[in-house]
Amino acid sequence: MSADNEQDAREQLIDLAAQFYDQFELGEIPHMSVPTRTKNNIEYDEESNVWVYGDRESTRSANSVRGARKLLKAVYTIDFLADQLDEDRSSTLRELYYLSESWDNEEAQFTSQDESNSLIEDLEIVSGVTREDFHMRPEESGATIMGPLYLREQTRRGEREIHCQEDVGEGGYQIPNNPDTIDFLDCDADFILAVETGGMRDRLVENGFDEEYNALVVHLKGQPARATRRITKRLHDELDLPVTVFTDGDPWSYRIYGSVAYGSIKSAHLSEYLATPEAQFIGIQPADIVEYELPTDPLSDSDKNALESELSDPRFQTDYWEEQIELQLEIEKKSEQQSLASRGLDFVTDTYLPERLDEMGVI
Amino acid sequence: MSADNEQDAREQLIDLAAQFYDQFELGEIPHMSVPTRTKNNIEYDEESNVWVYGDRESTRSANSVRGARKLLKAVYTIDFLADQLDEDRSSTLRELYYLSESWDNEEAQFTSQDESNSLIEDLEIVSGVTREDFHMRPEESGATIMGPLYLREQTRRGEREIHCQEDVGEGGYQIPNNPDTIDFLDCDADFILAVETGGMRDRLVENGFDEEYNALVVHLKGQPARATRRITKRLHDELDLPVTVFTDGDPWSYRIYGSVAYGSIKSAHLSEYLATPEAQFIGIQPADIVEYELPTDPLSDSDKNALESELSDPRFQTDYWEEQIELQLEIEKKSEQQSLASRGLDFVTDTYLPERLDEMGVI
């Protein structure tokens, strides 16, 4: 699968560069059209439940020095990426920026990392190939998985077959930068529980929640990396596993849920690749704060503003979220995942999660 | 080893509580003495090359309501920790704070997490037992290892034997929260290369640096977690491996090196457990910025202040560091690890690191 993607990605890139030749031959000024990446041109697609680009395009054209320089940089970058794929190598966004200093044409060198990052985003959108398939690695890798999943990872040192409970330490299986190098061989899991904090992830593993409930415990580590969202989506799509998201009970954590489920405005072109619209939110719900009398902190002004802005965010425009967010604005309190410990260290695994999973129809 | 530690830790805790009984019997007001944890009472020990506490002590005594409440909280916490060790369970600092809400005596409940964190530090210092041996887990776990090391991890699901190249994916072996659950079975490594950033860690692994140079590549992930520093120290002490630290070339990264090598003021009581004074700094050195004409950013005012304060930090009072820091203040520039990519993606593994390791006498 990986080799096919690479071949595809390489062809898409070469096609892009070939367009410029065609344009030259037709006597046209070379140009490239890219969807406008501003908030006005991003729409929430009701059908697929994710963010997508609208119809507006902007054109990079060689009819100005500035535009010509942009295309020159694009061509150099395409050349670098095509070579990288050919040699089965990879690099980070930051390396690409620094590497451009070694290019023979000074006009093609990037003046800031924002510029090279944004060009890679352009190329992702125009070619329909993801950064991972260009072999551009993120700076920081994904998080970990613990649960009854047996997988094969294609590494550059050969294949590794790993069971994510039996062949790993307590730290779990470390998700690689590009999870598309993974094949799922066997899975006894009934659902995925994606968890925001390391403290809670460790609690669930210590309490044997993954074993008792056949759960894949995926650590989100705060705002999840692309690799973590991608493998979550693949586990859902390929193995038909329900995805549940377990975070702190505050507006920033609801955004973590939102990015797993619906993607983000910043990466609207990747929604199809990264978002799992079927993902369900387990909690901490504002209703839980009331029901279980959890220890709380007061909402700050920025918490309140974030909640207000979620009320007008299309991703949160459901009866469920409106009710929960309005309740939270009313009680003016927030609670962390780990505050469930106020009812004992086993409450989360013996009572809270089983009850919520049952309510949600997951178990 | 782990079971012995637990037994020891439990006895130390019970001894602490028993002291209060002894004091009652002698007609003394119960009290506990703790080294004062202020900057004035922390000394750099020239002999062992780490930070240690001085002779000043402060006393928590039940001769005031405030003091009595502190001791009450200590006793409840000791009781909780002793039970936890007895049942072979563990918890996080945050869970302890929340859990205190379930204690029957309201006076014993913590009013803030700072209070419970600081009590655990007191108990670590007074008992001479580390937090890990109380089974208090950190919120976030350590980072990863890749290299020719075969180890056995005692997990609560049984033993796992893992080779940190052959049995792991590209993400490497995830260091558990308490690396003292690990036994080193076999090691073909010649040295440790501890690396600050994920981008560089991935570059080294992609280029096969661990294989070619028999290196254990330990990812520090910025300021390293206790677990990462602990396993680095154990690898050094038990397997006699030289430790080299590879970071960005700026004052904040020199502090990362400092915390691996000499510990920090905040955790002076743990220096013996966490610090590796023999660790050597590879770079990026200010001299490298000049020699290799690396891409740079200008020093900010806070960078300059941090460098100045390092000049007066006993950890950096060597000819080497004075020369490097003064050079950096002169050129007013800093460079990242990944800026080595300006000389090509293989420069770091083919040229830079081998030359530095040779200069340093490591290879």
Order of helices and strands of chain A: HEEEEHEHHEEEEEEEHHEHEHHEHEHHEH
- Please give the CATH architecture of the largest domain in chain A: 3-Layer(aba) Sandwich
Q: Which structural class fits the helix and strand makeup of chain A?
A: alpha/beta
**CATH topology of the largest domain in chain A, what is it called?**
Dna Topoisomerase Vi A Subunit, Chain: A, domain 2
Number of helices of chain A: 13
How many DSSP-defined strands of chain A?
A: 17
Helix share, percent of chain A: 40-55%
Q: Unreliable runs of chain A, pLDDT <50, ≥5 residues? A: none
Q: Please tell me the total number of domains of chain A.
A: 2
Radius of gyration of chain A: 23 Å
Shape of chain A: globular
Q: Oligomeric state of the chains?
A: homodimer
Tell me the fraction of residues in β-strands of chain A, as a range.
Answer: 15-25%
CATH class of the largest domain in chain A: Alpha Beta
EC number (chains A, B): 5.6.2.2
InterPro entries (chains A, B): Spo11/TopoVI_A, Spo11/TopoVI_A_N, Spo11/TopoVI_A_sf, Topo_VI_alpha, TopoVI_A, TOPRIM_Topo6A/Spo11, WH-like_DNA-bd_sf
GO cellular component, one term (chains A, B): chromosome
Family (chains A, B): Belongs to the TOP6A family.
Description:
Chains A, B: It comes from Halobiforma nitratireducens JCM 10879. The structure is a homodimer of 363-residue chains. Chain A is built from 13 helices and 17 strands. Helix content of chain A is 42%, strand content 19%. In chain A, strand 2 (42-45) and strand 3 form a beta hairpin. Chain A folds into two domains: 3-137, Arc Repressor Mutant, subunit A (Orthogonal Bundle), CATH 1.10.10.10; 144-359, Dna Topoisomerase Vi A Subunit, Chain: A, domain 2. Chain A is globular. Chains A and B meet through strand 5, helix 3, strand 10 and helix 5 of A and strand 5, helix 3, strand 10 and helix 5 of B.
